[in-house]
Amino acid sequence: MDDSIYYKRTVVKELVPSQALGTERPVRVFLPPGYQELMSYPVIYCQDGEQFFNFGRIVTHMNRLIFDEDVHPAIIVGVDVDTATRTSEYAPEGSRFDAYCRFFAEELLPYIESKYSVRTEPTERILAGDSLGGTVSLHLALDYRSLFSNVLSLSGAFLQSTRDRLAREEDLSWLHLYMLIGLDEQEVRTERGTFDFVEANRRTKELLAARNCRLTYEEKPGKHLWGFWQNELPAAMKLFL
Predict the structure, then answer these.
(1) Coil, strand or helix: which one is 124?
(2) Closest CA to 157 of 175, 182, 121
(3) pLDDT tops 80 at residue 7
(4) Does residue 195 have a pLDDT over 90?
(5) Which InterPro entries does the record associate with it (predicted)?
(6) 205 partner at 20 to 30 Å CA-CA among 39, 164, 227, 236?
(7) CA torsion, ordered 133, 136, 142, 146, to nearest 10 deg
(8) Rounded distance, CA 220 to CA 228, Å?
(9) Which is more confidently placed, 200 or 6?
């Protein structure tokens, strides 16, 4: 098959108005090959939208899955973030965290659903994020469980505040979670300090398993980088689609 079909894409750029954030948020929307408004599609919502599209190559992966593996086409929504405010929006103790979660659940979803043929059941929405993007995705699912039940986490920053949040839950059998962690992530430098992400993910896995979460957990040699995550993304997407 001619490789060029993997790289053809329809990506619509949107500016989503937000009262919660007090500004517009740039969003990119990938429409799969043969997109028709008469059909409906599962949707993958990515934190760090620009990175998922450029470094994660999620659109090329989606095209390959559609053409080569007969995976059901999905719409992909990449929500961009300003690196200057990323931690304040994605970290549970961040000053903009609550506002960002409100924007995501109460403004972004209705906006996308009013313009595109996306499915609206929680089981047809997938939240995807790397590092702190995995963190905010998990918290969104916990706080808006009527909206989200699938989380794809690439080296999630599941630190103490997230583990405390999970410990308050009794039953997570409704939650479907994919967790990837690289075995070379024992000293990850972040704005908030240096952390052992392997240990953090293992402890999070125990909390989730004890609460009957539908969990796919993978540890592989890899660093806290897109070079590692990019290659693991297709299998993770396939799991949900």
Answers:
(1) helix
(2) 182
(3) no
(4) no
(5) AB_hydrolase_fold, Esterase-like, Mycobacterial_A85_antigen
(6) 227
(7) -80
(8) 9
(9) 200
